[in-house]
Description:
Number of helices: 9
Structural class: alpha/beta
Shape: globular
Number of domains: 2
Radius of gyration: 20 Å
Bound molecules: zinc ion
Helix content: 40-55%
Strand order of the largest sheet: 5-6-8-7
Distance between the termini: 11 Å
Amino acid sequence: MERLHCPTCGNEVFFDSMRCVRCETSLTLRVLPDGGLDVADLAVTGGCRKRDDWRCNWRPDDGAVTTDGGPAWCPSCLIVDAPDDARPTLLIPFLSAQRRALWQLTALGVEWRTEPALRFTYRSRSAGGAAVIGHLGGLITLDLDEADPARGEQIRSTLGEQYRTPLGHIRHELGHYVWLRHVAGDPQRLGAFRATFGDETADYQAALDRHYARTDDGAWRDEHVSFYASAHPWEDFAESWAQVMHIHDVVSTGAAWGVIEPPAAPFDPAEWVSAAVTASLAANELARAMGMRDLYPFALSSGARRRIEACWQVVHFRP
Ligand SMILES: [Zn+2]
Ligand SMILES: [Zn+2]
Ligand SMILES: [Zn+2]
């Protein structure tokens, strides 16, 4: 992600900043059609209807109106279905992750506002909501409990899943969306997908049942980005797509901050993967310098890299 600056005083601000810490200008943000970000003064642009409730700093589209005459929803909050009593400490991290992922889709050239348009439903299993995490025809359903740090820690220690975050969940589910949008209806891309990931017509439920009955022997590492990716071609693609989004963000952010050189050939996914390896080594060392867990806890085999690159080729690649 590029570096952002206050429109009033030029101070460094961030993707989620509600106001400038130096001059106290209240900020709004918009994603431009090319994936660039425009930061403006709330007093000039107006803000999202959910600015206070959901701590959303995006602004509505120009000319967006509501039937009650109140403020309009921004393009991100507009596609959210969340219970009125959702715990803000769980919902807000998910919505922040959702905005970041939506920015990225635009930056990567994936259209998400036309049919099959993207929508997000948030439920909490611990609050009795039926939350089956998944994707269906553009609708992504997520379990708010996944934003609970205690639960994340428990899953990390029992299941050994090193990386489990709201952003990770959203990027995975977006992989299913990208597949539906760019692969399912295109015979040429479907052929290329099957050549790399296998035949997705294999019984999905049976594959998942088999997956949950086996133990992780590490054999997946030569070919896949994760154990779960080896369960079925759809999950393989979604897990690989999540890595595309990790890599795109880590490399573009690292380059913006001068931590790494930007990819030498910006249209070549292999260059992005190579740059990500350098960026992740630096990021992991910085995390260790503070006694924290690795930021990027993945080691990518050549087979996994091949899948990530194939996944990236599926979209009209835009660096
Ligand atoms: Zn300022
Ligand atoms: Zn909003
Ligand atoms: Zn999945």
